[in-house]
């Protein structure tokens, strides 16, 4: 029962995020934003959609159980969700699931963006680990962690190139770590 509650919660959360992204996209386009990377976006959507199919299939068909470390993993999941909310609220109208850049706009360097260039991708990577581990879905964890690495290997350089071309991104974030806070 807990699995179905978690799965429903995560799917509903993602649908809400897509609605927020669509609203932000409409606003940004109205302000003159440029969309980059449309050719790879479908692959990101596919990976994220198939994650849920794989997770549900593995847990249900292989009769996986809740991990004995479920309390720790649930705490980690809650922390990632708090991080997700922090990312979205920090970017405000600039948050999107697509690469959308508003030329000549100052890059957001508040919230988690003070420490990392890509905190959202760190959170997604952690979710691809934590959620399957919670239900001992090891095949899904390994497969989708690897697929996520592949899509991010395309997306991140494309996103950074677009931000450098249209904003002050390099000046604002030049010394920041991409994924893990650097020691100062």
TrEMBL record:
It is found in: Membrane. InterPro entries: ICMT_MeTrfase (IPR007269), Metal_cation-efflux_comp (IPR052527). The keyword Methyltransferase applies. The keyword Zinc-finger does not apply. The chain crosses the membrane at residues 45-62, 69-88, 121-151. One of its GO terms (biological process) is methylation. PANTHER family: BLL3993 PROTEIN. It comes from the Bacteria. This is Isoprenylcysteine carboxyl methyltransferase family protein. Pfam families: ICMT. It is a multi-pass membrane protein. One of its GO terms (molecular function) is methyltransferase activity. Keywords: Membrane, Methyltransferase, Transferase, Transmembrane, Transmembrane helix.
């Amino acid at each position: 029962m807990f699995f179905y509650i978690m799965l429903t919660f995560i799917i509903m959360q993602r649908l809400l995020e897509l609605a927020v992204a669509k609203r932000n996209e409409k606003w940004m386009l109205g302000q003159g934003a440029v969309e980059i990377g449309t050719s790879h976006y479908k692959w990101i959507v596919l990976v994220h959609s198939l994650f849920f199919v794989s997770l549900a299939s593995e847990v249900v068909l292989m009769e996986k159980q809740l991990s004995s470390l479920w309390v720790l993993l649930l705490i980690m999941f809650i922390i990632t969700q708090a991080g997700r909310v922090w990312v979205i609220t920090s970017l405000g109208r600039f948050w999107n699931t697509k690469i959308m850049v508003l030329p000549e706009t100052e890059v957001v360097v508040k919230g988690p963006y003070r420490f990392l260039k890509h905190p959202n991708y760190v959170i997604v990577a952690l979710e691809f680990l934590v959620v399957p581990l919670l239900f001992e879905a090891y095949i899904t964890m390994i497969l989708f962690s690897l697929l996520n690495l592949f899509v991010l290997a395309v997306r991140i350089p494309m996103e950074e190139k677009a931000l450098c071309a249209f904003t002050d991104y390099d000046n604002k974030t030049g010394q920041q770590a991409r994924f893990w806070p650097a020691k100062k």
